[in-house]
Amino acid sequence: MDELLPGMLHLARDGGETLTRQLTDQLRGLITGGHLAPGQRLPSSRQLAKSLALSRNTVTFAIEQLAAEGYLSSSAGRRPIVVEGLSLDRRKALPRSNRAGGGRIELSSWARSLQRANWPPVHDGRPRPFQPGLADEREFPHDAWSCCLRRAARNAPLRRDRPINHPPLQEALLRHLVVHRGIKATPGQILIVPTAQAGLTLVANALLERGDHAWIESPGYGGANVALAAAGATVSAIPLDAQGMAIAAPEDTPRLIFVTPSHQYPTGRLMPIGRRLELLRYAEAASACIIEDDYDGEFHYEARPVAALQGLAPSPRVFYLGTFSKATYADIRFGYVVVPEAHIETFERAQRHMGMLTSITMQDALAEFITSGAYLGHIRRMTRLYKGRRDRMLQALAAEAGDRLAIEVPAGGMQLLARCHPHTDDQKLSARLDEAGVVSRPLSSMLYHRSGEQGLFLGFAAWNEKEIDQAARILGRIVR
Amino acid sequence: MDELLPGMLHLARDGGETLTRQLTDQLRGLITGGHLAPGQRLPSSRQLAKSLALSRNTVTFAIEQLAAEGYLSSSAGRRPIVVEGLSLDRRKALPRSNRAGGGRIELSSWARSLQRANWPPVHDGRPRPFQPGLADEREFPHDAWSCCLRRAARNAPLRRDRPINHPPLQEALLRHLVVHRGIKATPGQILIVPTAQAGLTLVANALLERGDHAWIESPGYGGANVALAAAGATVSAIPLDAQGMAIAAPEDTPRLIFVTPSHQYPTGRLMPIGRRLELLRYAEAASACIIEDDYDGEFHYEARPVAALQGLAPSPRVFYLGTFSKATYADIRFGYVVVPEAHIETFERAQRHMGMLTSITMQDALAEFITSGAYLGHIRRMTRLYKGRRDRMLQALAAEAGDRLAIEVPAGGMQLLARCHPHTDDQKLSARLDEAGVVSRPLSSMLYHRSGEQGLFLGFAAWNEKEIDQAARILGRIVR
Fold it and tell me: What's the predicted TM-score (pTM) here?
């Protein structure tokens, strides 16, 4: 052996990998490959160095490394021995019975259910008209934002005291929410989370026990359905009437109600104050909590928005959920949750336990973006722009498919619902549109109760008038 | 009433709020306050404009806004009526029985358990020596990083096609992990998550069913304990021997095993190759999965690190978990998980369902930071620096408290474990140190099996030699 080993090693002296590294890797390979038998003694480092024409140091380093890794056992003055049981040859190392399984692993029932979930719809490639849920990123002030980011990153070394939710962002955001959304809170109540969906997951897990009942709207937001179900809830879908979620005498009292009162998702309906108060009274009586998802509550075209449920509620049972993805641009991703003051500490612990923390540098950049006025300026400019696009979209759809689509004029937001004749198959229609380059989301995929409603959910905010007209023509051709 | 209403309104003409906004807000307040009774008719907008000396338009806008919000019902040519049931006066609006509860909400058993959890330890204020888990942020190249961030933000408009895990970061990170950690994977197997703890939550939920058994090390990482338990597992704590987790004949076969083979948390022990293979063989036989947490696997001081379990495993059942928080600086927060190739799609869906997505701008900045060489350069510089600090810490502790503390020399990482005499109360000792300005974590709070072991977990990486000497003197004084 002492004579064979040098011949099994092939060291390149081309200045690539160091010789120590090559020697270590090759010796390790010979051991795991079974070419050096367990219990075998290696030559001494002096011998090995000589036969390989290496420095003694090189060999000693390699031997020490392999001893540290556990491949060799060596003691002072003695030649190193190959440790037992290190061959990775599967035929020897593993019990026969397991090879048959091909190492398949079993996923949890939740993970298996993901393959069947129809949420979220994944659109590959570049966004195309009329994919819903998108703001126009071309209009976002990327330069102003990148300056905020750079400044925040440069100031990072000065911030060694770092609560997980950055007070300057909490304060800036709260001022905005108080004035524009009627939120009543202290800054500490605002948690900054990686995404609005993470906020939903957090609140659902903190409130729901396995088997609890929870309500969502139907048609409604699939992300809420999956988050409440994942937290163990039995989810009931409550149909809408003209004012939004139609609170009826329910079979099961909910512990948690998910609503989108600002512009109902996907119909765009504004829940009027009367229904808001009715919902709050119902929640009080049922001791239920409410998640108010104000996902695109910034963009109102008809009148000023109705005050948020959170600010109207007589007791702190409303969790207000928002996102920067719509009012800034999608990639910022951050969401926020306004939690009741009495539970701030518990929710901050929950954030840590689930790992739903975000970079303070990003939070600081957002704080500056808001306090500098860039945030509100952008929202105002986009509100005008998106209103124009909504109107253009209404016009174009009326011209191209007015007889086939009944469009609910949304009071705000970035998308609209175009209802089709009940005999339509909106899934097929949506698939045909997709082939022609127009993205939509079929209404039937957003219905969580039995209903024959058919329609298309279409985004208008991210496309200019020319793009809207072109896509509407394609849509009209296929719908007719 | 027609005559009273103008007297109830007080409009300021000082150029602050617009008159429309003042009028809207005040009318809304009168309705919700019960000063305008349900069913009551308001004066016509013409009359109101006249008596308030406002333009007709101002009044019309306010009425339309309140009608849109649902406070007033108005029809063409008729005077608007106050809608029923809008008073927010709690005494009237809410059922008596609920006022008694004070609006308290009930949290889930998970959320209630958070208040009792001893993880994570929260340190208020600026970090102090020897708080474990911290890298030295003063040494981080903040300028290079802020340039990467700004460039990535500026390039954002060009990136409209955005998979949730950014391929350039996956590729750059994989190259690093293959060379330095022995990972075997394709780039698509790497998921970028908001934090390593989020990655742990994600994997635990995708693998564990309620009642499944899971193993952690003891002493071990509290974050794993809470994540596995939150996912429904019955967690067993497996004591360590000199090689790490001591795989014994267990009562219950685990479905998931959490280990920190690189430097065991908190002992800093390196799991040698023999134990690694034993663990892999056990997992194969038991059809168990492994989460390999390589949280500070970048910093090795004695020899090159042992190859990761992930690369050694004969079948894809190891989830490799890493973080940028230790190798860059804590605020970047992002973690990553290498998942089996067969399950990429399921895990990406799981990321979306739980909202564990991160900004592509940040991911792109990290990709550039790695490919530019700044990442590896920083790791190499820090490895030299931290090794020096480890040695200084060993020296200082030996000099100040050598007779009271038995220190395990960690092969790498950023902290060490100093064992105390079994009669010590390490919780009390840690509290006394904290009062004196020295932060530690008592070993007993990291033990998950019955054991009388006592000790202090101390970080050395984030402090310079002077700070180490000073804090060691304080520690020595209190320990003696």
Answer: 0.87
| Cβ contacts of B354 on chain A, cutoff 8 Å | 197-198, 201, 230
DSSP class of residue B445 equals G
Cα gap A13→B357, rounded to integer Å: 45
Tell me what percent of chain A is helix, strand and coil, each rounded to the nearest 5.
45, 15, 40
Beta carbons of A115 and B346 less than 8 Å apart:
yes
According to DSSP, the residues that pair with A441 across neighbouring strands are: A457
Could B270 and A68 be called an inter-chain contact, meaning their C-beta atoms sit closer than 8 Å? Answer: yes
Residue B406 in 3-state DSSP?
A: strand
Q: Which residues in chain B are closer than 8 Å to A302, comparing Cβ atoms?
A: 68
State pLDDT tens for residues A46-73.
888 888 888 888 888 888 888 877 888 8
Residue with tokens 């002296």: A13
DSSP state string for B203-245: HHHHH--TT-EEEEEES--HHHHHHHHHTT-EEEEEEEETTEE
CB contact at 8 A, A156 and B141: no
- The residue of chain A nearest to residue B125, with distances taken between CA atoms, is A161
Residue A68 and residue B303: Cβ atoms within 8 Å? yes
- B278-328 per-position pLDDT tens digit: 999 999 999 999 999 998 888 988 766 678 999 999 899 999 999 998 888
pLDDT value, residue A101:
46
Rounded Cα distance, B477 and A400, in Å: 84
A116 close to B (CB below 8 A): no
Cβ(B166)–Cβ(B139) under 8 Å? no
Return d(Cα A18, Cα A8) in angstroms, integer.
18
Separation between Cα atoms, residue B51 and residue B43, nearest integer Å: 10
